[in-house]
Structures are given as structure tokens and as C-alpha cells.
Design goal:
With 383 residues, this protein is an all-alpha fold. It contains 16 helices and 2 strands. Strand 1 and strand 2 form a beta hairpin.
Amino acid sequence: MLRITSFEIRKLLEQPMIILFFLASLLLNIIYITTVGLDQSYLNYVQETEEKTGTFITSEFHEILTNQPVSKEKQRLLSETADLENTFQHYSTEALGQEMISFYQIEGSVAEKMEKKYEKLTPVVQQLAEEQAALELGAAGETMSYFTFLRNRLFHLILGESLIFAILLGLYGSTSERLTRTDFLVVTSRTGRKTLLSKYLASFIVTFLFYVTLALLTFGIFNYQHDIGSLWDTSISTQFHLNIYSPIVLEVPFIPWQPMTLLYYTILSAVLGSLLIILCHGFNFLVGLWTNHLFWGFIVFVSLYVTLIGFEQIINQFGWWNMHSLLMWHPISIWKVQGYWFTEMGPYATIPWQETIAIIVNLFLLGIGGIVTTKYYSIKEVK
């Protein structure tokens, strides 16, 4: 099987569209990075200042900063760090929960689950208060711009590109024999049908390599273009970084279910993103087997996606919170709220770590679907 799998991988990598799609994705990411407009000079000043003042905003920090040479950056930093305090010291997660419930007008059993969820957030806030995470300097006023771009926009783009690639390669992997009109030769024997496992492994490996390579190159290029240095080690819960819920803007502290630095949060997001890609690739591979056609398999996926989006709009319009809560367990919904992963997630979750649990549950369901499809395919007639 390993020999056949390596042969299938080579066949896939010889497809010009795969290389072109990768290069196009990387080029788009480079353009996005070079045009984002982050204030690198101010970040450099803050990090140079940190070497003298330390990374936490204290009274000593202000004394040392006041004695630094006069500059526009110094005045800005003094202004941005004036009168700051440890906001998590007496922070009430129960009050945050009530604010969220009232803001989104959540009712019924979902509101009760939300209250319990925010009660479980209290120990995390206490730990953040002890660590004085809110007083970490980061990049001061530019922290929000850097953090949001990295953990949300740039990673969201990488994940989106990789998911599209997973969809297409999953479908292609299970329908390639039909496209080349060799399906009669391959699937008319028990041995021939077993090659589909090699095709699955080959398309999965190429998909995973696409994701990992694209992510490493994109973040590497970003770090070369914008050397953020110690910012990677800054707490994701610094008060310069907020969780913003939309379309109606609600700003709350960024509180994950355990204290994290930007680097740790990014790595954890990448790992969860890889599980989402495995799920997306596997689902579309099965869709290709059931439809036995690349085009019709793609139509099935698009139809499901459009239906889900339309259903979500109806649910939000009528305030059906029980249905909304259930919909948040769907892989597409999980991808859409990627910017809130590992936090309390506001109206998008009713339990801690819901996005992680949801993906694991979906992978389990995918496994069941794979078993059912295998039994179906073993007796399927070639048309």
C-alpha cells in the first residue's frame, strides 16, 4: 500500500493546478502582509523601551519612561499607559455573562447554559489577575492591530485557503479514476477498490503538506517583514487586546479558557485548524465516493454551504437560540467564528472549549460515515 500511496502522491504533485493554487495562495498572503499598514516603527520603540522598563506597566515603569529622551513615540506611550490597572483584579465573569445575555437578548435554556459557562470562567480570571496579564505592555496601542491581524485575519486567510484546497483535493482524490475513465478497470475487482485507501492517504498527505507549508512560509514572511520579537511572548489577555463581537459591536476582555501567550494561542489555533482540515477533506472524499463525480460532488458541498448560511440567517432573524446553539457545532460555523476560538466565545458557545469538542465530535461522526461508505462501496456497481 505504501508503494501505491507514494505513486498517488507523485501523481497529485504532477498536477499543475495544485502548484498554481499553492503559489496563488502564497502570493495573495504576501500581498496582504505587505499592504496591511502596521506601525513597525512604534513597535520597535516600545520593545526598545521594554528592555529598560520591563514588560509590565507599573509605577516603576512610568518613572523610567518619564526619564527617557523626549520623542513623539514617548508621548504616545505615556498617554496609552496612563492610569491603567489590573482589570482582572475584581472582574466579575457572572456580570460579563449577564451583559452578553442581555446584549444579544438570549432566552430560555441557552441563557441558563450561558450563565453556567461564565461561572466556570471565574478561576481563569483569577489566575489572569494573579499573573497581572492585563498589565503586560505588548505593543501598547498597536497590540490590538498586531494581535488581530495575526491570530484572526492572517490565520483565517491561511485556514480558508487550506480548506478550499482540502475540499477540491478530497473530491478529486475519490473521483480521479472517473475523470480519467479508468474507474471500470480499478473498481471492478476487490483489489482495485482497495486502492481508494491509498488515494485517500495520498490526497490527505498532500492537503496537510499544503496547509503546513503555506502556514510556515506565510508566518515566516510576516516575521521577516514585521519583526515582532518579544510580542510573541505577550499574554493574549493584555488589556490592549479585546474580543470584539459583531455585527453589533460589543467589546469585552480577551479571556481564553487558560492563560496563553500570542505564540501559544497561534500554535493551538494551527493544531485545531489542522483537525478542521482533516474533517473537511475526509467529508468531501466521502461525498466524491457517493456522487462518483467531481462536479456533482462540488455542487453537493456548495448546496450544503448555501443552505446552512440561509438557515443561519433565518435563525438569527427570529432569535431561535436553541437552533443557533446547535448550529454552532457544524464545521462551517466553527470556521466562521475562528477569531473567537479558545475564549468564552460569547453567543457562539454554551460550554467551555466548545470549538475543540465540536471538531472532535465531528471527526467521530466522519469515522462512522467512513465505515458506512466503505461497506456501501464494497458492493457498489460500476455504472
